Amino acid sequence: MANVSDSREALVQEIDRLGARLSTLKAAIGDVVFGQETVIEQALVTLLAGGHGLLVGVPGLAKTRLVETLGTVLGLDDRRIQFTPDLMPADIVGTEVLEEGEDGRRRFRFVKGPVFCQLLMADEINRASPRTQSALLQAMQEGEISIAGERHPLPRPFHVLATQNPLEQEGTYPLPEAQLDRFLLEINVDYPDRAAEKRMLIATTGAAAPKARPVLEAGELQAAQDLVRRMPVGDSVVEGILDLVRSARPAGESRAEIAKLIAWGPGPRAAQALMLAARARALIDGRLSPSKDDVIALAAPVLRHRMALTFAARAEGVGIAQVIDRLVEPLR
């Protein structure tokens, strides 16, 4: 019993210590990115849970600035790729070039692409062709790439924060459902409130714009990701996650009035994502274990890109957000 007690006490101390560091980190991000507290929290949840995020919002809402700031405060090697229709897979993963050595022999040398970093911003990912999207999404899933039969592991940690503009969908290539499922969270970036926009207006148009400062290092982020997976989760929260995910399937355990609205629903990966994300959110707050409130707060970003509504539901003006709100009611 003493060993169990000591282990629990050590875990509590570790969470308290890291929770304080994460509070400082959030404040550092908030000094640069104004009025997006929920977005900042969900982006941190994504990284602490070891996943990838999809940022959806109109231009000018600081999505690029957020990713750059995260790279700085977390001590990560960050890169940015602007996705365009003519972008090729080799522009992301790299390519082999033929060189002639001093001995006169010709041989291929692999030149790494920008995907070989720790935090990659894939800007407007739906602008590139499906072939190019697949090259990035394969790297996200496997943590490595294969060129000419040779595997090249990506750095650790490795995270992708992709962006999508919900406007001007002409000429875009929407991500297939199977590829959307690889993103841990879909993070909606909305307009800031008036007070935050006023603060941003004053701070960013002066002589010295605010700059991010390093708070953590890459190794500390990996330690935090390991800690997230060691955090205990109560049975009531586990059952709540299962109830929520299984009720979001048309042929699952959903209520009849909701089932008729859902064309297809989330698979087991959604439950895994919700479990990890709830733990990460609890860690950010310095709590030992997640609660149902964490599940409720993260239900929408975990589920909205993993389910679709029937034609009848769309015809009646019912949206994904409304359905998810009804699904989480039993957890309140």
TrEMBL record:
Question: Where does the ChlI/MoxR AAA lid domain start and stop, copy by copy?
Answer: 259-324
Q: Does the keyword ATP-binding apply?
A: yes
Q: Which InterPro entries match?
A: ATPase_AAA-3, CbbQ/NirQ/NorQ/GpvN, ChlI/MoxR_AAA_lid, P-loop_NTPase
Q: Name one GO molecular function term.
A: ATP hydrolysis activity
Domain named ATPase AAA-3 is located at 52-185
The family database entries (Gene3D superfamilies) matched by this protein are listed as: Magnesium chelatase subunit I, C-Terminal domain, P-loop containing nucleotide triphosphate hydrolases
Q: Which UniProt keywords are given for this protein, alphabetically ordered?
A: ATP-binding, Nucleotide-binding
Q: What family does the Swiss-Prot or TrEMBL record give for this protein?
A: Belongs to the MoxR family.
What's the name of the protein? AAA family ATPase
Species for this entry: Zavarzinia compransoris
